[in-house]
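USER: My hope is that you can spare some time for a protein that puzzles me. I am handing you a single protein, as its sequence and its fold in token form. Walk me, if you will, through where the backbone shape changes along the chain. The protein I mean follows directly.
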Amino acid sequence: MQKNTLKQLYIDELNGIYDAEKQLIKALPKMANAAASQELRSGFQEHLEQTKGHVERLQQIFSALEEKPTGKKCRGMQGLVIEGSEMIEEDFQEDVKDAGLISAAQRVEHYEIAAYGTVRTYASVLGEETAVMLLEQTLEEEELTDEKLTELAKAINAQAAVSQPEEADEAPESNRKANAARSH
């Protein structure tokens, strides 16, 4: 059946966001465990609790619309979660990995900010005032999380820039031999 109305698009988008949030509930604990910085780990754990609240708000919206989430797969979030998982698996020095985790998390936040901003606008046009309020609350939390990540990134990126991996102290074998030959 062809979908012809803004309300159908709105519900479709809500389903995608619902799936995105459910994917994040699974991904955030992994990101928290991978973080070396206690502040970053705590930030991921805090956002996990917020994300559970986002799901509850979406459920309220679905209930008011007399709809149930369909389980529509959010491919955009799926890709972002995969990128975050790949960062977790990378063999970077701790501060550098934390910088990469923040980068992955901010891409997620920007995706969510765009999605929530869009559905909030749809809800407003459709006269869904309770949904507008709920979506605005979530949007503000997503924006605040992005700001916190930016602040955290300033310190962690600076640490990552000056951190030297342990193997940097060891000269490659060819350099040691060349230096030894010159010193004789």
Q: What stands out?
A: The chain has one domain: 6-164. Residues 6-164 form a domain with the Ferritin fold (CATH 1.20.1260.10). The helical segments are 6-34, 38-64, 75-89, 94-125, 129-162, 173-183.
